[in-house]
Amino acid sequence: MSKVFVIDLEKRPLDPVHPAQARQLLRNKKAAVFRRFPFTIILKDSQAYAPVQPIRLKIDPGAKHTGIALVNDSTGEVVFAAELKHRGFAIRDALTSRRQLRRTRRNRKTRYRKPRFLNRTRSKGWLAPSLQSRVENIKTWVKRLRKLAPITAISQELVRFDMHLMRNPNIQGKEYQQGTLAGYETREYLLEKWGRQCAYCGVKDVPLQIEHIHPRAKGGSNSITNLTLSCSKCNTKKGSKDIKEFLKKDQTRLEKILKQAKRPLADAAAVNTTRFALLEVLKSAGLPVETGSGGLTKFNRSQQNLEKSHWLDAACVGKSTPILNIKEIKPLLITANGHGSRQSCRTDKFGFPSRYVPRFKFVKGFQTGDIVKAVVGKGKKIGEYVGRVAVRTTGSFNISTNNGLVQGISYKYCSAIHKKDGYGYAN
């Protein structure tokens, strides 16, 4: 399992410790719980507990999930791992709903409003809200982890595919075209572009070979737009035939392959745009930032025979990756939930108000979304309940636990474990 973060009385980060050592410190009352997610303790003694070793923060940004890992470069130990789930699709759907509601209002027979121009000029570096939220989520967790661990360097997977390297193998020297990394960038790109299946017969879960659409023997180039994936059977059968001759009886598949060959990998382009914006955010932290490509990440992971996961990809980012020690590591699963809605009233499916929302968030010191522990000693609901709370103005709260929803718990029995911060957590 991941180690426990430790800070001193002045809230300076110290070396993370094993959970057993943290339990002993808490049992001996030499430390207290400072934060639940990620779990952090604060020492009660003014002296530093141990010498501090530098830690590298490694990030693998993705479209839906971002992998995070804290690695000790000198020992290769992964001291903390997390997988952050973004809410880009939820933001997109909310903006679509708002756009539709506004469009219906504009189409009604209301007073005439003169058209306005130049009122939507986008600032330099603007990103769509669904993409910007991903950058902000990662920025938030970089700030949090820097307060809890002695981070001295950052590694980021900057681009999923090194496009320049695929176009010109000489761009970064002979070690790429002659070394063990040769072909990783191109192959990973083709796997994503062609859906990890044979372009000619559609077979999956078999060894795939890189194949020239227009054969080299007839003037075809090594350009990425002239490459595809083929199973061994189709590759042998096609040989040096032109694709139009090979698929003359299957015009539908021929048109599909030629169209797909010209199409860029749109998802990779969008992710790359976001990652360059993230790079500027990481540089502003004032720490040295190392960058690497997705092909290099896969190479590092394959060399150490590690399985595919978001946090392991993060641990393998960059040339600085040592031999990793991932013993007993269990990643913290983080979900970006947002901070709720500013909608003044809730509506039914027809758009009519169904209930109004109070203007205040806090009730008896609690707000909806807090993680609380309720110990009920009398009445029909005797027991101990831990989960997220939904507050009511009456002081009778609902708690969502792992075993279901518990209703009608008085605020007097509740104590806060973790205040609402816009994220959900699971192990």
Automatic annotation (TrEMBL):
Keyword Ribosomal protein: no
InterPro entries membership: HNH, HNH_nuc, NA-targeting_endonuclease, RNA-guided_IscB-like, RRXRR_dom
Pfam families per the UniProt record, alphabetical: HNH, RRXRR
Source organism superkingdom: Bacteria
GO MF, one annotated term: zinc ion binding
Keywords: Endonuclease, Hydrolase, Nuclease
Span of domain HNH nuclease: 185-236
Classification via SMART domains: HNHc (SM00507)
PANTHER family from the UniProt entry: OS07G0170200 PROTEIN (PTHR33877:SF2), SLL1193 PROTEIN (PTHR33877)
Listed name of the protein: HNH endonuclease
